[in-house]
Specification:
By secondary structure, this protein is α/β, with parallel strands linked by helices. Helix 2 packs across helix 3. It is elongated. The two termini are 41 Å apart. The chain binds the ligand O=c1ccn([C@@H]2O[C@H](COP(=O)(O)O)[C@@H](O)[C@H]2O)c(=O)[nH]1. It comes from Pycnococcus provasolii. One of its GO terms (biological process) is 'de novo' pyrimidine nucleobase biosynthetic process. GO terms for molecular function: orotate phosphoribosyltransferase activity; orotidine-5'-phosphate decarboxylase activity.
Length: 492
């Protein structure tokens, strides 16, 4: 029986038939999470209810990873541990581990306190090699979400084994990240078996093959028309072309201090804020504040923050998100209890009021600079789409001396990315090494994803740092992750 490309030598017909019998492989019309309508649906979660099948799946996957594939892919590099991608692959990895007396490590999906370093459970040493075990691969993103924290904890990942390769671009995506994919089964191989056994018709087979061909590389990322200019340039080079002095200053600082980390210190007393700023100061290029959450803010709080900024070489960003008519925004910037313009190096503004909010902020005595919110990290944000981003860009381009860049999420994938001036700074919040989000709509991505895949320059980390039991070492870890990602981007 012909196996699909990339499957193991021992393509297991009985395994395919058993998966079909328990409805782990189904045909019909299914709406996927992405919104796409698919003629095939794979639900491998049911396997846990069939111990013999689970056993056979584990054996097939062990063989796929330890023997040469039909297409010549060599066996996996020797590994000391296996790590199942939560949750479906956890029992599979456990059975493989028990059959072959091989150690496992476990990646925690939700780690509240990054400082406890319990994102990876188990007994391991730096440079140990881990085989990642997953039930199926489509785009490769869910595998990557497990590989990244393993690598962050200094474990080496070279190979990934899956039961089914959906043949939709996952293999190439993983290869681009230096990983070899081993698959026990492929969709084309499964279809061949089921057609041969008259379980599905050739017409259904063709509709699935058409679906696969039409839906390649489903990472969910839009592909930019041309690579944005700023990605290949160093911060230092870009500082020279920045039209806004605050952008030039920040880019130079990042290059000099070798950090692209901004700590968002969202605490509620001056004492906590200043203590944290002192602790994380050596690691960051920027400290971000929300002065209106600090219950005892005084002029001295702002002055002390500036003293620390000078001592540790960072800049101070008040995340005020001005969103009113120009006159009010200017008053909010200069006056009131906080007198933001007197102690912050720069602020930010929503684009919803229109361009005059920028003129007004710029006119304030002691005004620094301003970032525009082009995208937000919160679930359900309406600040989305090419037109919204283009409005932010046009407003920035009209005030190049005062607008230093953007608060954004995926600037690399903007339709207009190739036209964006490399002198702008892209600052991205919603960053965590351990969590995917909170209960009130925050969505997180990792420093690597933000910088390499999405085009961020500065990663903004709040609870990942000030919520850790040791903010100092958490900031050092985020700094390392952010800088490594930037260096990797320059090599691409
Ligand atoms: O789209 C946005 C814009 C701003 N933020 C701010 O960043 C920090 C993130 O804090 P975490 O604790 O890391 O979630 C916070 O101050 C937000 O107001 C954002 O998250 N998303």
């Amino acid at each position: 029986m012909a196996a699909g490309s990339g499957s193991s030598n021992n393509f297991d017909e009985q395994l395919v038939l058993d998966l079909f019998d328990v409805e782990a492989v189904k045909f019909g019309t299914f709406t996927l999470k992405s919104g796409l309508t698919s003629p095939i649906y794979l639900d491998l979660r049911v396997i846990v209810s069939y111990p013999k099948l689970l056993d056979r799946v584990a054996k097939a996957m062990w063989d796929a990873s330890t023997k040469e594939d039909a297409d010549g892919t060599p066996p996996a590099t020797d590994f000391q541990h296996m790590c199942g991608v939560p949750y479906t692959a956890l029992p599979i990895a456990t059975v493989m581990s028990m059959h072959h007396e091989t150690s496992m490590v476990m990646r925690r999906k939700e780690v509240k306190d990054y400082g406890t370093k319990k994102a990876i459970e188990g007994a391991y040493k730096p440079d140990d090699v881990v085989l990642v075990v997953e039930d199926l691969v489509t785009s490769g993103m869910s595998v990557w979400e497990t590989v990244e924290p393993l690598q962050h904890h200094k474990l080496a990942v070279k190979d990934v084994v899956v039961l089914i390769d959906r043949q939709q671009g996952g293999r190439a995506f993983l290869k681009s990240r230096g990983l070899v994919l081993h698959a026990a089964l492929t969709i084309t191989g499964i279809l061949d078996v089921l057609v041969a056994h008259k379980k599905v018709t050739p017409e259904v087979q063709q509709s699935v093959l058409d679906f696969i061909a039409a839906n390649q590389n489903t990472t969910g990322n839009k592909v930019a028309e041309a690579p944005p200019k700023w990605l290949a340039q160093s911060y230092g080079t870009r500082a020279k072309s920045a039209k806004c002095p605050a952008a030039a200053n920040l880019l130079e600082l990042m290059e000099r201090k070798k950090t692209n980390l901004c700590a968002s210190l969202d605490v509620t007393t001056s004492a906590e804020l200043l203590k944290l700023a002192e602790e994380v100061g050596p690691q960051v290029c920027c400290v971000k504040t929300h002065c209106d959450v600090v219950s005892d803010w005084t002029e001295a709080t702002g002055a002390e923050l500036q003293r620390l900024a000078k001592a540790h070489d960072f800049v101070v960003f008040e995340d005020r998100k001005f969103a009113d008519i120009g006159n009010t925004a200017a008053l909010q910037y200069e006056c009131g209890l906080h007198k933001i313009s007197s102690w912050s190096d720069f602020v930010n503004a929503h684009i919803t009021p229109g361009p005059f909010v920028i003129d007004a902020l710029k006119g304030v005595k002691g005004a620094g600079a301003c970032l525009l919110l082009a995208e937000m990290s919160s679930k359900g944000t309406v600040a989305t789409g090419d037109a919204y981003v283009k409005s932010a860009l046009d407003m920035a381009d009209a005030h190049p001396d005062f607008v230093m860049g953007f608060i954004d999420q995926t600037p690399k994938n903007w339709k207009c990315a190739k036209d964006v001036d490399p002198g702008y700074v892209h600052m991205t919040p919603g960053i965590s090494l351990a969590s995917k989000g909170d209960k009130v709509g925050q969505q997180y991505t990792t420093p690597h994803m933000a910088i390499v895949d999405n085009g961020a320059d500065v990663v903004i980390v709040g609870r990942g740092i000030y919520g850790a039991s040791d903010a100092k070492s958490a900031s050092a870890e985020y700094r390392e992750a952010g800088w490594k990602a930037y260096e990797a981007r320059l090599q691409m």
